[in-house]
Amino acid sequence: MSAARESGRAQQTRARVQDLEQAAERATDPQERQRLKDQARQLREQSEHAGGTRMPDSDPTVSSRR
Fold first, then answer.
1. Residues in CB range of 13: below 8 A, 6 or more apart
2. Which end of the chain is more exposed for a tag (fewer CB within 10 A), N or C?
3. Cα–Cα distance for residue pair 36/19, rounded to 1 Å
4. Given its phi and psi angles, is residue 2 left (phi above 0), alpha (psi -120 to 50 degrees) or beta?
5. How many CA atoms lie within 13 A of 11 on its CB side?
6. 46 closest CA partner among 3, 10, 18, 6
7. Which residues contact 47 (CB under 8 A, 6 or more apart)?
8. What is the pLDDT of residue 60?
9. How many Å apart are CA 51 and CA 7, to the nearest integer?
10. Residues 13-30: what's their mean pLDDT?
11. What is the SS3 assignment for 61?
């Protein structure tokens, strides 16, 4: 796979994770909110594992770089 194709896929994955996290923030049902958050977390972890790079947290309240 070319570097450009991999980069495009990574961007799509980041966008999907961000969409899921935003949907979770808007969700009024606690179970739906948790489901969306879990989905975003799983997608982020799969991406990190496949690409070997860590995606930045989109939640500014979570800091993994302390």
1. 43, 44, 47, 55
2. C
3. 9
4. beta
5. 6
6. 10
7. 10, 13, 14, 17, 55
8. 52
9. 10
10. 96
11. coil
Structure tokens at 35: 């489901």
Name which of 24, 66, 16 is nearest 44 in CA terms.
16
| Structure tokens, 10 | 């990574």
| Residue 3, both tokens | 């570097």
Each residue of 22-60: pLDDT tens digit? 999 999 999 999 999 999 999 999 988 877 555 555 555
- Residue 25 has φ and ψ, to the nearest 5°, of -65, -35
